[in-house]
């Protein structure tokens, strides 16, 4: 079966996608610089699928190394590109890090395939919609000025990809605009493993529940939402991983929509931060110590997606609900508490 390059494949979404690619009969090959992931995740993946995936450690911002790798692996037929800096708050504080890492890696990959046919799945984000005028937001909604440098890199990357696909005949590209990935694999062997202080809600919830953190801060209590907290479309990471496999399959048979296309990847349901906390407390049986703090710069008030296009044209639909998201995240937190995965 086809060999698929997974950039950032030891990361949170990447590792789950490697598993689902293997389950679907593909041969995943990982490139990761381990700047925000753990080499031991390779062993965890092996425990799940029975084989250790091929792994190469280097930075895709390095032109020479990227070009040499692509030339040495002519049998790669598809790329799923996750490798990027991804924390909204950090991007506001350090925008140059985000513009450098997120653009150089993408452009180097595309340049390496100037003369070769390639199916390319890009890890995009619902942040491209900014603060939507209409909910649920569809793929035809206007792309608005981003509220963060991170979101801006996704917007510009999509423009780069669309213009590249239109200019050259060898690229077939899908950008998956996904919402808020949460949860962990059912085995509790892989999951979200943030370095330092978590940037996302759910690992902060689980770390608070298990005692690693004293309390959880809910950023903002006075938003124009039913309970005053932000609303997001949370999606189980395994469902998200399967969407990438579906995208590769679509590109392999030929996307009738052309050389570039976008899809929303979410559940179509919005949950507030407080609803997410309550769902976790129910799933885990653990009361959470949380307090309200000031609004966080760059946060969108509420967003959830219309996933009609993904269902009809990508042939994909989320199967796991909020209960599975919370219970699997809690199982993963308990696993890494008992089996620490220290960074090398």
TrEMBL record:
Per the UniProt record, one Pfam family is GDP_Man_Dehyd
Query: What InterPro entries is this protein classified in?
Result: NAD(P)-bd_dom, NAD(P)-bd_dom_sf, UDP_G4E
Residue stretches spanning the membrane: none
Identify the EC number(s).
Answer: 5.1.3.2
**Catalytic activity from the UniProt record:** UDP-alpha-D-glucose = UDP-alpha-D-galactose
The UniProt record lists the NAD(P)-binding domain at 5-327
Which named protein is this? Answer: UDP-glucose 4-epimerase
Q: Which organism is it from?
A: Sphingobacterium litopenaei
């Amino acid at each position: 079966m086809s060999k698929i390059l997974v950039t950032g494949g030891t990361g949170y979404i990447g590792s789950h996608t490697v598993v689902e690619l293997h389950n679907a009969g593909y041969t995943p090959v990982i490139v990761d610089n381990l700047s925000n992931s753990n080499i031991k995740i390779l062993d965890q993946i092996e425990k799940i699928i029975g084989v250790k995936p091929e792994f190469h450690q280097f930075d895709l911002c390095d032109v020479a190394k990227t070009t040499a790798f692509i030339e040495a692996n002519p049998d790669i037929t598809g790329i799923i590109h996750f490798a990027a800096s991804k924390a909204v708050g950090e991007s506001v504080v350090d925008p140059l890090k985000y513009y450098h890492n997120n653009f150089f890696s993408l452009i180097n990959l595309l340049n390496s395939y100037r003369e070769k046919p390639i199916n390319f799945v890009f890890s995009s984000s619902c942040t491209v919609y900014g603060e939507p005028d209409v909910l649920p937001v569809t793929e035809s909604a206007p792309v608005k000025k981003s509220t963060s440098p991170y979101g801006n890199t996704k917007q510009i990357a999509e423009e780069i990809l669309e213009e590249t696909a239109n200019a050259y005949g060898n690229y077939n590209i899908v950008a998956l605009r996904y919402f808020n990935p949460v949860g962990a694999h059912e085995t509790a062997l892989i999951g979200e493993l943030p370095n330092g202080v978590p940037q996302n809600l759910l690992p902060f919830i689980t770390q608070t529940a298990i005692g690693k953190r004293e309390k959880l801060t809910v950023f903002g209590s006075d938003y124009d939402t039913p309970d005053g907290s932000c609303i997001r479309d949370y999606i189980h990471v395994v469902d998200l991983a399967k969407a990438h496999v579906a995208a590769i399959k679509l590109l392999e048979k030929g996307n009738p929509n052309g050389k570039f296309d976008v899809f929303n990847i979410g559940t179509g349901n919005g949950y507030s931060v407080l609803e997410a906390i309550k769902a976790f407390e129910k799933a885990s049986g653990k009361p959470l110590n949380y307090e309200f703090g000031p609004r966080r710069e760059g946060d969108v008030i509420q967003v959830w997606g219309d996933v009609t296009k993904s269902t009809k044209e990508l042939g994909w639909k989320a199967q796991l609900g909020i209960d599975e998201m919370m219970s699997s995240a809690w199982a993963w937190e308990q696993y890494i508490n008992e089996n620490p995965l220290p960074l090398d």
